[in-house]
Write a sequence for this structure.
């Protein structure tokens, strides 16, 4: 994945699970060293429903610490596990000025999840400001997503899109007169 992004000159945002970073810190370090953004996807990837404030704080703060230890110095945004953001989580994020980032397109939901179907869905669902959710680092189950990645990049560029990180997307740009 990192080789494809480097070859295509694309910077991406990776929402990291703390447990995975704790087990494989060198992977997060390679992502940060390549100039990509790291976001927080919780420590355990457990649902936050009916969780204590202490659980929420640990999940976010422990993962943020691992992201910093990996060498990433930019803003850390948060993507909730399964996209669920209920009760205590939004309160914690707001109090700590952490931006929640969701997604617009999850092309791997195509059945069967072939590289061709994933690419076609990503290109069909693209629009200005869209955030495309991929899971390229999971084991064999995500092979089709990895195979689709270069085709998605090429297809989006052919449609006239510029690929940017989440932080760039969230940063107000000066208007052209």
């Amino acid at each position: 994945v990192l080789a494809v992004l480097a070859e295509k000159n694309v910077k991406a945002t990776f929402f990291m699970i703390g447990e995975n970073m704790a087990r494989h810190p060198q992977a997060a370090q390679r992502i940060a060293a390549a100039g990509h953004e790291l976001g927080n996807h919780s420590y355990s990837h457990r649902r936050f429903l009916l969780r204590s404030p202490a659980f929420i704080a640990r999940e976010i703060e422990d993962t943020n610490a691992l992201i910093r230890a990996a060498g990433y110095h930019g803003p850390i945004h948060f993507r909730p596990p399964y996209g669920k953001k209920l009760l205590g989580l939004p309160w914690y994020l707001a109090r700590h000025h952490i931006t929640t980032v969701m997604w617009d397109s999850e092309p791997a939901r195509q059945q069967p999840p072939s590289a061709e179907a994933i690419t076609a869905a990503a290109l069909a669902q693209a629009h200005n400001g869209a955030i495309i959710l991929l899971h390229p680092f999971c084991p064999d189950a995500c092979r089709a997503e990895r195979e689709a990645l270069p085709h998605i990049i090429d297809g989006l560029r052919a449609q006239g899109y510029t690929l940017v990180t989440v932080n760039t997307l969230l940063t107000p740009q000066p208007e052209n007169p």
Summary: The chain has two domains: 10-102, 103-167.
